[in-house]
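S., here's the first fold you wanted:
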Amino acid sequence: GDTREVLGLLAELLQQPALPTDKLSMVQAQVANIISHRDDDASSVARRELYKLLYGQDSIYARTPTLSGVASLTPADLAAHIAAWQRPDGAVLGLVGDFSSSDMMNTVKDVLGSWSPAAGQPAEQRAHPHEDLPDLPAVLAAAAGNQQQQQQQQSQVVYLVDRPGAKQASVYAGEPGISLSDPDCYALDVLAATLNGFGGTLFDELRTRQGLAYSVAASWDSPVDHNGLFVAAAETVQPARFIQELSSVLSSVREQPPTQQALSKAKAGLLNSFVFNFASTYSQLQRTLVFQLLGLPPVSRGGVSSSALIVLQLIEPLHNAPETLMWHSGASSATT
């Protein structure tokens, strides 16, 4: 077959990638166009600014590309990045198909066995950037460090971005969340499912009963390498009232946990969608490699199935504390 030829092209791509200036210029133009239009949607502004508030202005997890920064990139910059980070001791190779494992292993060793770190690079891998960053910036420590004092002075913080002429406000509320390795990840996915969609607590209360927003949703983001955020968002013409009612609903979830019926419905939905993570050979291989590369335990349906037992234990300030939520609105009318 053409296995050896394909692996040879892969080896060339890994060790001697071509970085033509015209291709870089084309991508730079595409990214510049995206940057020029990123404020067209008020919701994207609110989300971007919320991330800066929660992670910190200088955090790599809230970094915002600029036109000058994108334009300044050169092929030499790309080559330096590849040399520093694209190395055999930081990679996992996965192959799937109808072949002899021993023969394939011999072919891989023959083609890729000479791959080594680029000239001038250290023998050991560099520490990943996120390892040098604190989980929470000082702004969050100040907002959540002393809840009693915060409740007496300023229980919640609202930040505004004025967009003259806006027909409605994009409201984002957030607080520190979890990473994919958090043992509560499954349970919080189930809890989020009880909040969202038809029959969900947020949907029923804020859309169906009160008509404050056409669409409203909340969930815990769970990145693989750092703590994500809990974010609730909607667009509304009554931002002040929406913020008040959203806070009330989230508080009520802590005081009145989801019913067993709601938990069963949420679990069933998640389990039904879980199989699509393995719908193709490619998706199975990709998921296996990513989890192995990041040192994460395999994900199974059992994690979702058993999560109902601990959902009720998670309705606590650690994972759902409106007192520490930061709100960001895309219209100045949010204070009315």
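And the second, which I think is the more interesting of the pair:
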Amino acid sequence: MAAFVCGFSLIHSFITALVNSLIVVVISPRYCHMVSFVWCFGYLVFFRTTHYFGLPKVPAHSNAVQLLLTLKMVGLAFEIHDTAENKKRSPSEQDKTKELVAKYQNINPSFVDMMLYAYCYIGLLTGPYFKYRTYYDMLHQKQSSNIPTVESTINRLKSLPLFGISYMVLSHYMTVEYAATDEFYEHSFLYRLFYMVPMFVILRMRLYSAWVLSECVCMTAGLGAYPVASSPRCGQGPKDLQALEDVEKLDPSSVEYDFETIHNIDANGCEFTPTVREGMRFWNMTVQYWLATYIYRRVPVKALRTFLTMSVSAFWHGIYPGYYLSFLTVPPILLAEGVMADGFRKDATPRGQKIFDWVSWIFKMRAFEYMCMGFLLLSLEDTVRYWRSIYFIGHLIIVMFLVIGVSKKRKSNSQKGKEKES
């Protein structure tokens, strides 16, 4: 399938997977994950600049294959590393948890297994990201006949018509290309300001549609199906390993399964949660899991975690300046949200908290729309030109919220201090 989609440019993903598999085999598990990260993300630089070396510029679908394969190969190396770390703490008869981890989480793939995992047709172009262990469990699933693949797929497809029709209608009348023309900037300030609203709707509907369909592909294959009793988590798989073992003793026909492990998009969560931080958790969830597990939690300096995670995310998406301008706007937004919540929501009445959440939701959607334009316009010139035409209103609001939030928090702390003294 990859050869049919990519043609000659398949060579890039093949080299990435081949060398990464050799890294995992040859280099000590203690360091292989770091070498894998440097190799895979380093190759992304060359992959995206091939035209500077006289090679053909890679097509968009080959880029999609390369992106997902990069996550899988680096994730595989981290799984190998974590398995080796688990084995250092050899399980004893009294340590049931370590035995369960060895049984249900550790991996030991061969070189061929790694290459087959790299080019598994599921999620090859659109995701979702899934661990090698999830892939292994699918291949060795003994109760596949009891997994409700058809019912789960039909249920997941129910939201697709809304997403698909909304995308086709809106994208027919409005395009992001128009926002890069001189004619666009002849319109009024309000027109330019609110143009980002339908742009973000179009982006959401397009990605919602693609991710729902990709989840359905996983469901039809049985990928990511685990017993509900084991509390599967997106990207991670079963959390309750003891329950997973207990299920094996039950009548197979009585076991209930879900596909939460490959659940990649929660439209309700994206649309209706009140903050940017919460909304991000429901967007491209398996990639969020990858970033949280292999980047955010591994950064030793806590103050740098969000910045470095957003930087890796921006670099993974591409080398266009618009990506960096958008993703690196996230940390100050999260900081502003935090200080505003501490200053106004923390000590508010239940009614006051509801009002705060509604106002926060309004600004959350505007923040996503504002950042969306950098993600769509891509170039530094077009992104800055658009943001300048609306007076960098998104950044101004961030600064305003930071000042107001910090001031309110200091005032509240001062009042509490006086109350204690009295």
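Why I say that: The mean pLDDT is 93. The two ends are 74 Å apart (CA to CA).

Talk tomorrow,
H.
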